[in-house]
Amino acid sequence: MSVAESDPRQPREMPDLEHQETISDPSDLPSPAEKLPEIIIYGHSGIVYWWPVWLIGYIAAAVTYASGDPFIAEEGERLLVHPSPGLGLAFIGVLITTLLITNGRMRGIYSIVVLLCISLAFVSLAWAGLLDDIARLIPEVSVHMNAGFYMVMSTALFIIWALAFFVFDRLTFYRVRPGQLTQERWIGDSAESFDTRGMLFEKHGEDFMRHRLLGLGAGDLRLTTAGAKNRTIEIPDVLFVDRTVENVQRLIAVEPHEVP
Question: How far apart are CA 162 and CA 169, in angstroms?
C-alpha cells in the first residue's frame, strides 16, 4: 500500500448513493427453504393400521364373485354367497385381531410373547386336528356373507382409512431443517419453531404387532428440546421410523452455514 493511500488526510471518495443497489421489499430475498434440505415428518392415527381389514374384504368379495353360489332372497333378489363359511370366519378373525392390536399396546418383549403364544396355540390345535371339533361344538356357527356385504364394508373402511392417511393426519406435521424444527398446522395456518441444538430425538419402545406387523416399520417418536423452557413433543405412529430417525439425526447435525 502506498503512502498516499494510507494517509488519513487524503479525501475519501463518497459512494454513489443514486446508483447503489438497495432492496426495498424483503420478499425479494431468496428463501432459506430453497437452499436448505428438509425432512417432513407425519404422525398418524390408529386407523392407519386398519388396512388389512379392507384389503381382506376386497379379496373376499373377489373370491365370492368368482366362485360364489347364487342365493335367492325373500324378495327374489339374486345374491352371490360363497359356499364355505371359512371365508366369512377369516374376515371376522382379521377384523377382531386388528381391533385388539390397535386398541391394546404391548411394547417390547411382551408383544412378541403374546404373538408366539397365539401362534403356538393355533398350530397345536391344527396339528392335533381339533379345529374342526371346536367348530362343531356350536352347530349354528355358519358365517356366510354375500359379495355385496364385503364390497360395501371394505369400501367404507377404505374411504375412512384414505381420509385419515392422506388428509386428517397431514393437517399437523413437522419440518426438519439444519438447525431448526418447525411444527406446522394447516388449520389456523400456525407454525412454531425450535432450535435443534441439544435436541433429544428418540424412538419409543415398539409394539411388535402394532408397529411391525401392521405398521410395516412404524413407531412413536419423542422430541425433547433443550434450553430453559424445554418441551417434549410426541409424534405417534411415524411410518418407516428407523429410516426417519437416521435421516433426521444426520440432518440436525449439520449447521445451516455448512449447507452448500
Answer: 10
